[in-house]
Batch of 2 targets.
Target 1
Amino acid sequence: MKVLDLMGIPAPEKEKITALPNVQVESTDYLAQHGLADITVIFGWNKQAAALLPENTSVRFVQSFSAGVDYFPLTTLQSKNILLANTSGIHAQPIAESVLAYILAFARGVAASAQRTPADFWASDDLRASVFTLPGKTALIYGTGHIGRAIAEVLAQQGMTVNGISHHGEPVAPFATVGRDSDSLALAKAADVIVNIMPLTAETHHFFNDAFFNDLTGAPLFINVGRGPSVDTKALVAALHNGQLGGAALDVFEQEPLPADSPLWQAPHLLMTPHISGAFAGIYAAAADILYHNLVQFVQDGTLAENQVDLQQGY
Amino acid sequence: MKVLDLMGIPAPEKEKITALPNVQVESTDYLAQHGLADITVIFGWNKQAAALLPENTSVRFVQSFSAGVDYFPLTTLQSKNILLANTSGIHAQPIAESVLAYILAFARGVAASAQRTPADFWASDDLRASVFTLPGKTALIYGTGHIGRAIAEVLAQQGMTVNGISHHGEPVAPFATVGRDSDSLALAKAADVIVNIMPLTAETHHFFNDAFFNDLTGAPLFINVGRGPSVDTKALVAALHNGQLGGAALDVFEQEPLPADSPLWQAPHLLMTPHISGAFAGIYAAAADILYHNLVQFVQDGTLAENQVDLQQGY
């Protein structure tokens, strides 16, 4: 059984995987020479794999390197009965730390100080009056899955009250309150920090738009560590310029790579990172470990051990 | 019993205080009209209060708004048996959060991303490889007093191992290890993050000098939230340029305000804030809360609940 490795499985994990009965690992060279012929499992994804999949009959399981799988041809995978697994879980800790990093950069005046010039650096009365501490502040997290919960845990640990929004609206620890979409406005108005970690679906596309930002009253911080297209970039830029938002941090963007002429570059009170909130030294090993566990099960009975994506739902 | 409020107690705290049996709050208008006549407690301090105190016989307790009380007439207070309390303690939480903010700004690539231009923003392979998470990392805090302990608690909560250095070297929770000055080198070499929160004395002046930085082997982060002159600025700048330090964050400086021609402005991997790590928006409420707790006790038995200054020692 051939496993096509498009990501570069680290040596220790590769050794475990090739020790499985009848399993061979092929590199991107194989893809260049033979396409997807005789490939049963793909680890990672690229344009060439996407182009070849519709005509291929051997692929039975794709292990993504990401938590979100919106960029996969879900309908094709479903019609061909190909299993898809994500790496949901390994990004939770780094993303939660990144969210805390963004919040604290604003709360403790680090972001504002970094933008000052030698001439105005010490004129800090405005900073002194605006810096704050986290206990007693309220966060609202859109998405109460495991990454949302990991973020909630880190923020609750800092003394924040953390509410959530989900489809089902069912109580989930450690959220103080979980509302449905219909509770969004009331909870958003009460929030000092709003975090998006929803998957990208037709319903979440441009969920954060002019109407959303215009309804806010407390000039909260807005953080997007979910998917770029969940935010209407124009609306966000306007909300930063007109003060509907006190600040924003974006790790994901409607268009990636972020274009050099994006209006985001001129927006005030904005922190940006280049889609790295889920990254950490050790991420390849962690993803390959999920692949390994799934392969063990897949070799045995053709099912997956963990992180299987519901192709109908898209996550 | 009249409490003279020279600071402006915020409304919620004022409500709690006036609900105490037989307690009235008077404003600075009272001072202008009646002086200190019939005043039992003073919150804050000013020149008029200082001038009137020697002839006054009713004041029994002064609650300062500051941690340091060197500007009070300690001898007069002592001879008149007037109790004095400071606000020591309210800066621990904001300073601890600031330390976490600096560490996470480096760990999660926020500081490095903010320095990128539109043209090189998305070239993030180096960032992806360098960002890290906090669990398993080691911090060394110079100073194990109450602010040092608050920093240690916040970092330990993030999964870091936190060691400390103090004069006595005695074990203090939540430090994993507390060493004396003689253990400094060994513990510093093992640290991913080094934090200074020592008071400034003859012994701590330029404690962090060329010799200190040159001995480091793991390119740690260095954070100063203590006193500026504890660091030899030239040595720090050299350590940043030559890579002995992986990065640094300074809230205090040898010369304050920080001069526009300081070599720090040209140093790489450096975050600076203008002596604001202890500031926070609720500082008036926090100080009034100490006053409230002291009043509760004072009304009951004439003693103070917290933060009483030893008038002989002066702190």
Target 2
Amino acid sequence: RTKVEIYQYVVLKWTLALLIGLITGLVGFFNNLGVENIAGFKLLLTNNLMINQKYHQAFAAYFGCNMILGVGAAALCAYIAPAAAGSGIPEVKAYLNGIDAHSILAPSTLFVKIFGSILGVAGGFVVGKEGPMVHTGACIANLLGQGGSRKYRLTWRWLRYFKNDRDRRDLITCGAAAGVAAAFRAPVGGVLFALEEAASWWRSALLWRTFFTTAVVAVVLRGLMQFCHQGEGKCGLFGEGGLIMFDVNSLEPAYTTPDLLAVIFLGVIGGLMGSLYNYLVDKVLRTYTTINGKGPIFKILLVMVISFMTSCIRFGLPLLSKCVPCSGECPNSPSTGFSMHYDSFQCPPNHFNDLSSLLFTTNDDAIRKLFIDSSESANAAFQLSSLIIFFVAIYLLGIVTYGVAIPSGLFIPVILAGASYGRLVGTVLNPFTDLDAGYFALLGAASFLGGTMRMTVSLCVILLELTNNLLMLPLVMLVLLVSKTVADCFNKGVYDQIVMLKGLPFMEAHAEPYMKNLVAGDVVSGPLFTFSGIEKVGTIVHALKVTGHHGFPVIDEPPLTDAPELCGLVLRSHLLVLLKHKTLFTRKRIMTRSTIIKKLKASDFAKPGLGRGISVKDLEFSEEEMEMFVDLHPITNKSPYTVVETMSLAKAALLFRELGLRHLLVVPKIPGRPPIVGILTRHDFMPEYILGLFPNLNRHK
Amino acid sequence: RTKVEIYQYVVLKWTLALLIGLITGLVGFFNNLGVENIAGFKLLLTNNLMINQKYHQAFAAYFGCNMILGVGAAALCAYIAPAAAGSGIPEVKAYLNGIDAHSILAPSTLFVKIFGSILGVAGGFVVGKEGPMVHTGACIANLLGQGGSRKYRLTWRWLRYFKNDRDRRDLITCGAAAGVAAAFRAPVGGVLFALEEAASWWRSALLWRTFFTTAVVAVVLRGLMQFCHQGEGKCGLFGEGGLIMFDVNSLEPAYTTPDLLAVIFLGVIGGLMGSLYNYLVDKVLRTYTTINGKGPIFKILLVMVISFMTSCIRFGLPLLSKCVPCSGECPNSPSTGFSMHYDSFQCPPNHFNDLSSLLFTTNDDAIRKLFIDSSESANAAFQLSSLIIFFVAIYLLGIVTYGVAIPSGLFIPVILAGASYGRLVGTVLNPFTDLDAGYFALLGAASFLGGTMRMTVSLCVILLELTNNLLMLPLVMLVLLVSKTVADCFNKGVYDQIVMLKGLPFMEAHAEPYMKNLVAGDVVSGPLFTFSGIEKVGTIVHALKVTGHHGFPVIDEPPLTDAPELCGLVLRSHLLVLLKHKTLFTRKRIMTRSTIIKKLKASDFAKPGLGRGISVKDLEFSEEEMEMFVDLHPITNKSPYTVVETMSLAKAALLFRELGLRHLLVVPKIPGRPPIVGILTRHDFMPEYILGLFPNLNRHK
């Protein structure tokens, strides 16, 4: 590359980071605006009917709104982009590990993810917008990186530098971080999330770029929120709106040794419940996969069932709850946002229903109410019975909702369940401790998050950024450590589980113990297709047609060399580009290096957008062409990474994973006839495959 | 390993993390306590003389105290542990990159680092305790990891699992993070510092353990500070003491577009001054290296000169400054700590000298005064002239102080200079901006830190944790990004510069561009010593004596195999262990695998403590023994990583670096007589070496 090209590349890199930040910030704000306005309209409508004691009409309105929104989200998912269902974090994680699942970052997925998420969250489901925001950020990054959609002919020439795996991966890491930053308004948390949970490979330079992206998101969100707060009604019903949930700037919480024990206890139970959550989500998901597999209409039906259940629980349960008299005046003006509104529901004047103020509102507002310091307002205390009912309802609803065909984040359900659990413990322990129940709610949320997601530093920082009080750090850390440790004894983190359930071949960072007992040669399999340095077109076309391999070893044979020797590795995509240029074929085995280099530029071999490469079926050849030869040397990677067949499989796996390879050539130890034994790919390192070959291996040793 | 052993290992791993956190926290507190009490005594003494207008005696007392403390620190460094001089961060960084410099983490270094740092900081030098705390944390981790000092026969058997490079590196990463956490009371910042600046290899599992360690540090510090604040005088003169510098819980700072421009301007100038700082530090350091090389007495003399200069500047300059009348009562009670004390110095009653309140106090207190919000106290405003004099004095003193033979951190001098620069800009711009001058001081400190250290996320988080206000994030981020970008155009970060100056062979994360034009075979050099699978003792001893190599290829030759083939790699340290057991020698070339495995356990080959291995000179052999044979197969690593000689050097460098190798075997492409071409080690990848071999290579292409 020349100096000018390097300069262009650097400028472009940072411009893209800026754009990702800007657009993700805008989308994040738009998402919140949409949810707050739609949900606000729905709740206002229902509330007005309730005040006039038209209970049946109110339920019908509430149920109807939820159903319409839910079906809308489900229809988008089922018919336009099935890949947009679910959280999206497992898919992004798998992508960054090197697994390019079908249309996971396509423009249609982006569209459905944004609108489906707004409809789903506004539709009262126990789902969050955080996971979908991460996926949205990744989609935006991908679209920008490939210069728009190739399908819609929107590609830009100057993006040619980004048509490779590494740069694209970097961009998508930035996008994921920007998504977290936009969802939680937590820029540092976003960077750490990308580092801890999303990325499989990390470079120091990336830290800086990711940080820049999340900083842009933070600035954009701040600017737009200031704009909204300048005048009443500028942004409709958008109030405190889901961005900073809980702005506590109180003094350092004082705690004593008994408090510490209580917190550890909270962490242990939280870890247990978190791993139980994972277990149940896994079971439910398996059932849903079968149902969803039957067709789009079944997906929509399933969403309708869940929507009905949710509406019944959200509307019905509060009716069973006792009314509480307000201390002082009841803060009842829902027209300016619902955040601090304590709901009268079916109660007489000057009373409010504490269960309905949790259930009959948006999820964000419910979390805000659970986190509030009980000393701040006398109305902030909850009845024990309400907390228990709310906890059980949300815990179960969260489990049965994940997996239906709408974009559904896991953060909010887990935080809701955890916060109510923590508030419950805090209320029970109130006579014995100085810590406030609101603080316990925060710790409870931390314990559930630690128990399900198994992140540590990033969760901790996200929670601190949500609450804007760094002095809470030690206890939040403690509870996260305890709950993660407890939960790790039982199962894996929820995202890892989902990755496994989807059958994505995820490469773990460490080699499995049993790999130490195997060598690389043991797992090499299948018939190996190799090409000569100058190969007959027919042979290449045949090999491309009968196999699905993405890489083929190239071997130089006599008379080019004295003995057969390994020349390198050639990729399917590069072969296809070469085959398209039929003028490069020759009638004899001759080197045509210079002609090829003249006719083809490096950019012709750049990686195309997702799933839009040429297929071998698109190419047609005459009989005569099939008999001609083509020189593969110019497109062969002459320095592929190799291992000797006697290399320990564990070490080969380490090499494969740390360098982020897709193909690893296995060469014979003793020079023999064929200079190559086989190729190792990602699938050859999967435990299922290896244990299938060697069923007697002890999985844990 | 059995299950019990794995369990022991895990328990031990976490126990060590806990211990590192505990001890580093204790040392950090002890350090602060020492500095505050010694410096407090010194300042009280001088102040009392000043109040009685005995100016000459006051100067003598001040000068004398500083000189005694300085000479004490220098003597410790010069005679006991020369490795303890300087910051220590470059050395820790190099260690984590795989460079084990002489006694850099030895117990004597730890001792001198702790006490030298206390004496140096209390002695009024413009040095910080942050770098030394990082080094201290790393030393503590190393000592615990090797189970105490081998020299003093304090080793524990159950630590055998940690006698390898990887576990030791992990521990020292935790130690470095704990050091930052203890110095700044910034647990998250500590983790990020270890990730961004210190560590060369990072594993996700480490994130969690590091986080635990820093959490322990935070809890310990908090507990001890609470203890100190419970009763007056419990901890002597220890007041607000250097832990949280600046506890701002004000609202979100409001800023407009002109403010943003001002901040960008601040960042640009900060970046320029930061890179100038690096340039000058480098020049000064080269001079000092020559002086210090002449012997311990020259080191002490140099410290005395700098101490004299510092005393003159700190005492003399304020005399030139104009007195300012206090608004209201002068806050003059230095007996309870100096933090908010505005110094009367030579001024009449109800006046104070603003320059002396910055210069004639501890560095921590000066920073606190610069950061203070000017709206908080009318006395908090500074004269422009005082700020200019202070900035110039500290900027130059900081440069000439680094490199003298005392433990000296770079953070505090840079923060001091940056904060005064920012405060200066803020005071000048005061009529035009809404941002407070105290806030500008914070941004100025950020710009200088970004310009010298070139960290981003970690600095940002450390600054936020120092100030406990997350809402300042966007502007701090912006200024860091600008100043780092500007400074990167001129030179490298200060720590990288020092690593280079010390000649440590640091492996960069990326390969240099010119490596793409070379192949692995090009840089292989020197006579290669190889051993047979069963080798004559004399040959081994000879090879060990005439070379300094740490690894030797082992080649199986006929009659053991049909043709010579590469068996693997054997390490010098393992050879020495084998040679110590003379009963394993045989008279003939025979395999004695089973005997060797019976007689030697894996733990015999464990890596010993720093620099305490056996040397070949310790072993003596009779003529007869020299003629005997020994079977190397059991101690040979049979799966060494190899590359073909035609592999691109850039790719080989990537493999070497990403997998953290120490030896990389180069094998011939075409099977020939010797099955190995050479060994690549760290030194073969150093730019100086490669450019020496190929002087015509373009360094930047």
